[in-house]
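Record 1 of the preview.
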Amino acid sequence: MERLLDVLLLGRYRFHELSLRGRVVLSQLPLNLTMLLSAAVLAASAPSALADPLFLLGQGTALALLALSAAVPWGRLPYPSFLAVPLLDFVPVGLVRASSSDVLAGLGLLAVFPIMWLAGSGYRPKAVVPVGALAPLLIVWVPILASGSATLRTLAAQLVYPFMMLAIGVATSVLTASNDAEKARSAELLERSETRYRLLETVLETVDVGVVVIDADGHDLLMNARQRSLHQAALPAGVDDAPEAQLLVYRDGAEVPAEPRDRPVARALAGEDFAHEVYRLGRGARARSVSVSAGTFRDGAGRRAGTVLAFADITDVLAAVRARDSFLGAMSHEFRTPLTSIIGYTELLQGEAALTPDGRADLHVIARNAAHLKKMVEDILAAATTGAATAVAWTRLDVAELVRDAAASAAPEADQAGLRISVKADEPLPVLGDRTGLTRVLDNLVSNALKYSSGGTEVSMAAARDGEWAVVTVEDQGMGMSPEDVKRAFTRFHRSAEAKRSGTPGTGLGLALAHEVAVQHGGSLDCTSELGAGSTFTFRIRALSEAPA
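->
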């Protein structure tokens, strides 16, 4: 009852939140209040009508039905039992109308209340609505039949009233059905939304990636547990929380915190989308290296609504890579010293006049294999040091001269394999670069071309200017590569299927190292190849306007 009063007086609760008894009382009240209002109107306009026994009986019956609505525990009875109240409401409506309709017009419209209650209940509308329309018909016909003045004309004259009540009932039933359908749809959508939210929440808490969602104003909308852990790592010592600008966020390899505008969140808020940017969060043993990606999300109207940032902890991965590179570097150094001795003593022995032809041939095999093994060791050592903080000597160089030098260095290997090297690099091509790095690119390209070419074919090297670029091409007529292998040609340790089948030795590092040097110089290295017809590698580096002195 207290909740019912709150609904009536304060509107604290919604109708569907009430108990069934409260809903029945609340549905009955409008009829009772309107009947009491009609009594007040009659008291002012025709006091004598209040003494009519039918009027008093109608008012008393209505009050009794209200008391019945409040007293009966409808929730314990079969669900449709409460509909007995609106059906019985037609009795007091009929009594009041019969007693005072000639004094107060429109009392028959009181039947609208039980009609709307019945039709709005949603219980078997095809049966309930016609029953509700039959009651108004009885309200107007019973007095006529009781008076003995019933004729076909008098009875037909009263049909408009029940048809009006029927129309109101049908309209109410249709609106109720539509409202119920909309509620069901809303409930389904709400359930789907809740399911999706729980799924999203579970995914975010399960993945081993920190995720933070930021709105267009920079406020955090969502942050998973992994991201909260990474946020803690970026806090200064002794601080429980800090704004973004005070977090210890470093660029990879830097010892000074990144400028506020260069930090991931600031870049994302500025509208920048990026992927796999490496940062370090925090200092000391707690520091974590992360790979950060950011993407903009938009609302239903296509407007920018915010940004999603993903922080992948790559601390252990970087440690493993450094350990691997350290191991490779150490082992390469250990291998290179004895190999240098083997090559040196082989060269000394080859100068001995007392060697037999067979012995000289054996020494040649030893020297060739030792040189090949040394080349592999140097590739591994270069792979272990590429990307490290090594000094790069930037100087003016002539790429055409480097191409000619590379061809001259590879000439003995080409002659031994029965291959020809043609060079077209006559015009100077000045560039700014690292001699060691560019020499490695050219040596790896020509060595790769010779290694995978058949005897009697030609390897072509050319250098020319193309606008602001110095372009070097190395073309062979060897075994070539499939489209799948071309896509991975510059991946470390990758070797094409044809190279593996041919049994040609190699580490799969030469092209990868050449590509890394090209990128380091702000250039590019591309490959086109046809299986069985050969490959063409194109190296581009920005040219200078004049030749080096």
